[in-house]
Specification:
The chain is mainly beta. 9% of the residues lie in helices and 43% in strands. The chain has seven helices and 57 strands. Strands 5-4-3-8-9-6-7 form a seven-stranded mixed β-sheet, covered by helices on one side. Strands 47-46-45-50-51-48-49 form a seven-stranded mixed β-sheet, with no helix packed on it. Helix 3 runs parallel beside helix 7 and helix 5 packs across helix 6. The chain is globular. The N and C termini lie far apart (82 Å). 27% of the residues are buried.
């Protein structure tokens, strides 16, 4: 009896072993696999990812009648999608740590508040685009996936890409770039008919498929996931060395899900050195995926040219003499080769050697520091002082050199007996004495020497605003160019994006950054303006008097483009006294724009003698006889006549038969933006009388916004103050009125003058006139008596003229949350009181002199905020 039992037991074990090793369980139709759902057939397109994400505890099933169903075709809500994404990222444990008393800008059930708060903290929920019980559409989920894998910073750079879907036009504007990024990284796919169906709800099966694709871009830290290489196979036992360096001995059984590139596989299909993705329970393998997708890595070796800790960026010269700009990610590991210890970017310096491992998207995965900087005694100009690291970097004749200092370091300054390191400034010329690379003594030679340099451009990184150039002594240098740095092209104002490789440049450097740049080898355009003196139609010669009063004659190229009054024209239509604008190439006119109107500034006007005298663009002064029934156009004025034109007005006149027939007067009006219509390129504005009107941005209207080279209507915001310039009744230019933010450096209520020093060190001087106002504590004052030196202030245009000086109030508290787009901050004022504040996207975030980003502010950080008109202008981290 006992032998029979043993014999039967051996038979059963052998059978199970053979079934497990030789044949997948599903071949027998047995429903014994881990993660089995009766409503997900083996032939279901998402069977593998449903099983995987269920066993990973990302998604579960529904209990009905003692069975557990997955319901693959059931739509997911936005909250369900957020929870699944958090579990995929391994952040579900954060739900027990989050402060549930924090404020949320949207409503959710109490049971969902913790997950929603973690979703906000993880950057998955931004702003108010979240309704917890609303079905998640495919376009909305594309946005979620891009945020999950940390690619939201690419949505602007990919805007010109074309999607392959036939219904791309149906994708809501707010999501179009997210769909492009998601498509780029393979997170989404189209349907069999090549449509995307952006507004269709996402099903549970589709959601787990999306999340599974995103896993390759995450550093998965789930406790039940092992990723690594097989080191040994013994029967159903599999040994795996994980990517973290841990050796596992695991067991596959009859219920284990085994998958390869083409579906289910057998244990016998596994080989040593195979890369596998495992979901385990103790030492039992519940799921195995052979050759899982992973971002591929490459490596480059090079030498540091420059480090920008504040931008988390470095510029490296590779062994192939190629210049690479490397932006570190939050997940990038930075280690020393000598002992594999982790270091920070602040510990890197010029001339150090690095080995950089990059993934398939060129992102740095790991950076290994190979060698350090050699420093010695000498003389130079202070390039940088890092008081946290106690490191002084100076610019010497042969490059940069770095020195450590300590409390014993002596500082010698003439006529200063108590000099310290705080008295040494960037730009100072100094001598140093060192021992073992530590400063013994610093001697000030000359204060604040101007750093300037020149060379030939080798690389321009428009996104990071870093330029690399080679100096006359063949040294490669890389510098960040300040956003407000003037860019000059041989006397013409340009932008950073117009600098080209090969340009010869001269730069001024302050605090290690370029504050002004001049391109010396070329102009943007060789353009001239003037007035036609004569035209030789036969020989195609045009003689003009330019704006300097000089007479010049130019040959007109046979292929020249000729425009008269904004219409294509022939040369014979260009007449004497017309205003012209020319473009030259090799001393020939290639473009000629002429107008039969004259632009000038009024010197004198008489409605008695009907004469108007103008100073023209050429500098000469001319008088013109005016028709008695001249047509005068002045914006916002009913039935204007000659008497309404004043000295100093800029006007455009039309002359026919030696008489002025039309006069258009230039006028600038200040408005407040109250509505924006991006699709129709128009805005609705309000003037100082609260009258409203629409402004249409046709192609000839110039829109100017500081910091934007090609400004669009979408760059404007509601409540912006703008200046609209008209010529007659035609809108010519719209400028965003400058908002000056800073602190009062001087004020005089006697002289009615006030000076404001901005956060970037610039000073603005104003005269307080009758149209100016001071707003303080919600009270309006018509004098400067309530303003004190040191007050934080925001200066804006007054619709009625003059300026409005908004004195800011300070509020202190702890950070609850700050939106990544700098539009809103939540503060905990007391234990039970939370307050929401609207922010300007240009708000100045800083800690001391170090400018910060929203990601630098964490939960419970102590801050001071400065606000006026219920808007936050400045946030100071304590």
């Amino acid at each position: 009896m006992k032998k029979s039992l043993i014999r039967n037991s051996v038979f059963v074990l052998l059978t199970v072993f053979l079934i497990n090793v030789i044949i997948p369980g599903s071949a027998f139709g047995l429903n014994i696999k881990y993660g089995y759902f009766p409503d997900v057939a083996d032939t279901h397109w998402a069977k593998q990812v449903i099983t995987k994400m269920n066993l990973r505890n990302v998604v579960s099933g529904y209990e009905e009648n003692g069975m557990r169903y997955f319901k693959p075709d059931k739509p997911v809500t936005q909250l369900e999608a957020i929870i699944m994404a958090l579990r995929t990222m391994g952040l579900q444990d954060k739900e027990t740590e989050v402060d549930k008393s924090r404020y949320l800008p949207f409503s959710v059930p109490d049971w969902a508040k913790a997950a929603s708060l973690v979703g906000v903290d993880a950057g998955l929920i931004v702003g108010s685009d979240f309704v917890w019980d609303k079905e998640a559409t495919r376009a909305w989920v594309a946005q979620l996936l891009v945020r999950m894998i940390g690619k939201e910073d690419e949505i602007d750079s990919i805007s010109e890409e074309i999607l392959p879907f036939t219904d791309s036009y149906a994708i809501p504007f707010a999501y179009i770039n997210y769909v492009k990024v998601a498509n780029k990284y393979g997170l989404i796919k189209g349907n069999v008919d090549n449509t995307f169906q952006p507004n269709q709800p996402v099903t549970r099966a589709q959601m787990v498929a999306f999340l599974s694709r995103g896993e390759a871009y995450l550093d998965v830290k789930a406790a039940n996931v092992v990723i690594g290489k097989i080191t040994e196979i013994t029967g159903t036992n599999v040994s795996v060395l994980s990517d973290d360096g841990i050796e596992y001995t695991l067991i596959c059984n009859i219920s284990t899900n085994l998958y390869g590139d083409n579906g289910e596989i057998w244990v016998t299909d596994l080989n040593i050195n195979d890369r596998v993705y495992l979901i385990v329970d103790g030492n039992i393998v519940k799921y195995l995926d052979l050759n899982p997708p992973q971002p591929k890595t490459t490596s480059i070796k090079g030498t540091i040219l420059q480090v920008y800790p504040e931008e988390n960026t470095m510029v490296v010269k590779t062994e192939q003499n190629k210049i690479e700009t490397i932006a570190l990610l939050a997940t990038t590991k930075l280690v020393k080769e000598s002992d594999n210890t982790i270091i920070s970017i602040n510990q890197l310096a010029k001339d150090q050697e690095l080995n950089i491992s990059l993934d398939s998207n060129g992102r740095p995965v790991k950076i290994t520091l190979i060698s350090g900087v050699v420093s010695s005694d000498g003389e130079g100009v202070v390039y940088d002082i890092d008081k946290d690291l106690k490191l002084v970097t100076i610019k010497k004749a042969n490059g940069l050199a770095a020195y450590l200092y300590n409390d014993d370091t002596q500082v010698s300054i003439l006529n200063n007996r108590f000099a310290s390191i705080d008295d040494i400034k960037v730009g100072d010329s100094i001598k140093v004495e060192t021992t073992d690379n530590v400063l013994n003594k610093i001697i000030l030679v000359a204060p604040e020497v101007d750093l300037s340099s020149s060379g030939v451009v080798k690389q321009v990184s428009v996104d990071s605003r870093i330029i690399t150039y080679q100096t006359p002594d063949n040294e490669l240098k890389a510098h960040y160019v300040e956003n407000n740095a003037p860019i000059d092209f041989s006397g013409q104002v340009g932008s950073f994006s117009e600098i080209m490789v090969g340009d010869t440049i001269e730069v001024k450097i302050e605090n290690g950054k370029i504050t002004s740049l001049t391109v010396t080898n070329r102009k943007l355009h060789e353009r001239l303006k003037g007035v036609v003196v004569s035209t030789d139609y036969t020989n195609r010669i045009l003689t003009i008097r330019d704006n300097s009063g000089q007479l010049n004659a130019y040959e007109i190229a046979s292929t020249a483009e000729i425009v008269v009054n904004n219409d294509d024209a022939y040369l014979h239509e260009v007449k004497k006294d017309m205003q012209v604008e020319l473009e030259l190439s090799e001393e020939k006119i290639t473009y000629l724009s002429a107008k039969n109107t004259i632009l000038g500034t009024v010197v004198r006007v008489s409605d008695t003698t009907n004469v108007i005298e103008l100073t023209l663009e050429t500098g000469e002064t001319k008088s013109y006889s005016v028709l008695s029934n001249v047509d005068v156009d002045i914006e916002d004025m009913g039935s204007p006549d000659l008497d309404d034109i004043a000295k100093g007005d800029i006007v455009e006149i039309k002359v026919e038969n030696s008489k002025v027939t039309d006069i258009k007067v230039q006028k600038t009006i200040t408005y407040k933006v109250i509505e924006i219509y991006n699709s129709s390129s128009r805005i609705r504005v309000m003037d100082d009388d609260n009258d409203t009107r629409y402004l249409y941005f046709y192609s000839e209207v110039d829109l100017s916004i500081p910091g934007k080279t090609n400004a669009k209507v979408s760059d404007l915001q509601v409540n912006d103050i703008i200046k609209a310039t008209y010529l007659g009744y035609t809108l010519k230019k719209v400028e965003l009125a400058p908002l000056v933010i800073g602190s009062v450096s001087s004020v005089s209520s006697v002289d009615n003058t006030i000076s404001i020093t901005t956060f970037d060190g610039r000073t603005f001087n104003y005269k307080f006139n009758n149209d100016s106002r001071v707003v303080k504590n919600n009270q309006t004052y018509y004098h400067l008596g309530v303003v004190s030196v040191g007050d934080r202030v925001a200066v804006e245009e007054n619709l009625a003229g003059g300026k409005i000086y908004n004195i800011m109030n300070k509020v202190s508290g702890k950070v609850g949350a700050m939106y990544k787009d700098k539009t809103r901050i939540y503060l905990q004022i007391t234990q039970t009181h939370w307050q929401q504040y609207e922010m300007l996207t240009t708000s100045y975030l800083h800690q001391g002199a170090v400018e910060l980003t929203p990601s630098d502010f964490k939960l419970n950080d102590n801050v001071d905020i400065y606000l006026a008109n219920n808007k936050v202008y400045e946030v100071v981290k304590k």
